[in-house]
Design goal:
single chain; mainly beta; 2 domains; three-stranded antiparallel beta sheet; about 15% helix
């Protein structure tokens, strides 16, 4: 690791610790009786309120909120009698422009631009992008609240399939978390950090979008961990960050057999002792989830994962890669037995 990168990581760690110490939760006052819940996919009755949870001192947060007021956000229209949670930003009339606002400010860019087989070790985009550099503020979450024509609050019924909410030009991939909940980290690392250092939490019951991926490795490249760059929704809060890739199933990545179940998913999860680490995930014919760790040789001097492929036939899956014997795995609870190294 070069000195500049080490200094940057140390600086980010200090900011995160300071953020935890200084951040306060702005709880919304008790709201009056809300009108009937409106699905996010129906024509909005009053648009959407925008606000943000930021970590940093008060004056820096105020400056940062001002920088979020862009691209058509109405900063003059405000709620009456009740405030949305967080620092209020403004309002937008429809869900597509609102999700576009979330996309612009969650991350400045996606981490990955290459092929999934490439070991990707570029600098990790920071949640909130330039807010940290420009204002010394870390973005905790962007909040979208339903608005009524009378400038009140309404509940948003977010649909289970949120692909239709995204505006054109936002290349996020809808995904599902493979566990009930997991820590969301503001920065990736070569080894999974303690959960206490989390930036937020991701919940399977909420929404999840994948922007990209990247790998973090030890200096000797003998051990790496692949991360998914995500935006996670819980309720009306959208939080940007990183979760281990082996916990995420992008929509459309499952490989089915002859029917809906069993189905399987092959995830590049990192490098272990210089070998490519992959996780075979399966839902058996009863819908139960199972996992099995696999190792294959790395390619190109340890810079590339093998081009492994997956085929599901009945209740068995076959993993194939150039130069190695195909591996056939029964898609049942036997997958969950630990591998003996």
């Amino acid at each position: 690791m070069n000195a500049a990168r080490a200094q940057r990581i140390a600086w980010l760690g200090a900011v995160l610790l300071a953020a935890v110490a200084t951040w306060t939760v702005h709880a919304a006052p008790a709201a009056p009786a809300a009108p009937p819940t409106d699905p996010a996919t129906s024509p909005p009755t009053g648009g959407y309120w925008l606000s943000a949870e930021l970590a940093g001192d008060a004056s820096s947060r105020a400056d940062a909120v001002g920088s979020l007021e862009t691209n058509g956000v109405d900063t003059q229209r405000r709620p009456i009698d009740v405030e949305p949670p967080g620092a209020f930003v403004g309002s937008l009339p429809d869900v597509q422009s609102t999700l576009g606002w979330v996309a612009r400010h969650a991350f400045i860019q996606a981490a990955s631009e290459g092929e999934p087989d490439t070991l990707w070790t570029v600098d990790a985009p920071i949640p909130g992008g330039g807010l940290l550099e420009a204002h010394g503020v870390l973005l905790r979450s962007l909040i979208v609240s339903g608005a009524t024509p009378e400038h009140g609050l309404r509940t948003i019924a977010w649909p289970a399939d949120q692909r239709g909410l995204l505006p054109s030009g936002v290349p996020w991939v809808a995904a599902a978390l493979l566990v009930d909940r997991a820590p969301l980290f503001a920065a990736p690392a070569a080894v999974l950090p303690p959960a206490a250092q989390r930036h937020a939490m991701v919940h399977r019951s909420g929404g999840l979008f994948v922007l990209g991926w990247l790998d973090r490795c030890t200096e000797d490249r003998k051990r790496c961990l692949r991360w998914a760059q995500v935006v996670a929704r819980r309720g009306d809060r959208f939080s940007a960050g990183y979760v281990p890739a082996y916990l995420v199933a992008p929509q459309g990545a499952w490989v089915p057999g002859s029917g809906a179940l069993p189905r399987a998913l092959l995830v590049r999860s990192g490098v272990e002792e210089g070998e490519a680490a992959l996780v075979l995930v399966a839902r058996d014919r009863h819908g139960e989830l199972h996992r099995k760790r696999l190792r294959l040789p790395m390619l190109e001097g340890g810079q590339r994962y093998p081009a492994a492929t997956l085929k599901v036939d009945g209740e068995r899956a076959t993993v194939s890669a150039p130069g190695v014997e195909p591996m056939t795995v029964a898609l049942d609870s036997g997958m969950d037995r630990r591998i003996r190294d």
